[in-house]
From TrEMBL:
UniProt keywords, alphabetically: Coiled coil, Disulfide bond, Signal
PROSITE patterns: LDLRA_1 (PS01209), LDLRA_2 (PS50068)
Coiled coil: 59-100
InterPro entries the record matches: Eryth_link_C, Eryth_link_C_sf, LDL_receptor-like_sf, LDLR_class-A_CS, LDrepeatLR_classA_rpt
Lineage top rank: taxon: Eukaryota
Annotated Annelid erythrocruorin linker subunit C-terminal domain residues: 145-260
SMART domains given in the database record: LDLa
Identification of the protein by name: Hemoglobin linker chain
CDD domains: LDLa
Pfam family, one: Eryth_link_C
Length: 262
């Protein structure tokens, strides 16, 4: 029996060669590695450690690549959101420029033929424009839905008895949309007028929201004989150009830009 590493292997080979040449049947050669594993075990463990280290480096590189791809994806999503907002803003501007091509009670489909339909056909669940623009999501979104709050400072106030009012807040507390009249939503609104001394005057009013023009009409109620007409503007219709109107004369007596705060 021979113990050892590379040198021992050579001795074993020589022994085997001599046995073959001399034809000694009793010559028996055997290689027994040391109990600690010797050269072969050391070599195998070294290779295993090297492979583990390489795999760890590869995993680290993969994690870094995934992080980079995630950042790029998030950046692209933000770019698309900004582009979509820009498109909506352009559509609003085009609609504003082209709205005189349709009648007061009509809706501009936005196609090349400047197709107009009745505003009562907008958001009724059936596409009436050739391009289905009258049923698109951003058109049929209620900018003054239940829970909405709009407020702003009043300027150019000449409303008799209310000319000391400095601030207005609208809160939509109820919304109803009849299945047979989808183009208009019926709302319940509270109007809060705040005067120069900080006193608040409240009233509960009925209102209508027209999807075709994102147009809100708040009707007079109670002792306050004033109503309000509000046109939503902006890419997300988050602002409202409001005019306070006297019930009797229908004359505008105050103006405010209301911002959607909720």
């Amino acid at each position: 029996a021979v113990h050892g590493s590379t040198q021992d292997m050579r001795v074993v080979l020589v022994c085997a060669l001599l046995a073959a040449v001399t034809a000694q049947p009793n010559c028996h050669c055997e290689f027994r590695p040391p109990s600690g594993g010797g050269f072969l075990a050391h070599m195998l463990s070294g290779r295993q450690a090297s492979r583990t280290e390489v795999n760890e480096h590869r995993l680290t590189d993969l994690h870094q690549s995934v992080d980079v791809l995630q950042e790029r994806l998030e950046s692209k999503i933000k770019e698309r959101e900004k582009a979509y907002e820009h498109v909506l803003d352009l559509e609003n501007r085009v609609d504003h420029l082209e709205k005189d091509t349709c009648g007061k009670r009509e809706f501009q489909c936005g196609d090349m033929e400047h197709h107009c339909i009745s505003d009562l056909l907008v958001c009724d669940g059936s596409a009436d424009c050739d391009n289905a623009h009258d049923e698109e999501g951003h058109v049929c979104e209620n900018s003054a839905g239940a829970g909405s709050v709009l407020e702003g400072d009043i300027n150019h106030n000449t409303c008799a008895g209310y000319d000391h009012m400095a601030h207005i807040r609208l809160t939509v507390i109820g919304e109803r949309r009849r299945h047979w009249f989808q183009s208009v939503a019926t709302l319940t609104v509270t109007m809060h007028f705040t005067d120069d001394d900080g006193h608040v005057h409240d009233s509960e009013n009925h209102a209508l929201y027209y999807f075709a023009h994102h147009h809100l009409i708040v009707y007079p109620s109670g002792g306050a004989r004033f109503g309000l007409v509000c046109d939503f503007v902006g890419a997300h219709h988050d602002h409202c150009d409001a005019t306070v109107v006297h019930e009797g004369s229908l004359e505008a007596c105050a103006h405010a830009i209301l911002t959607k705060t909720h």
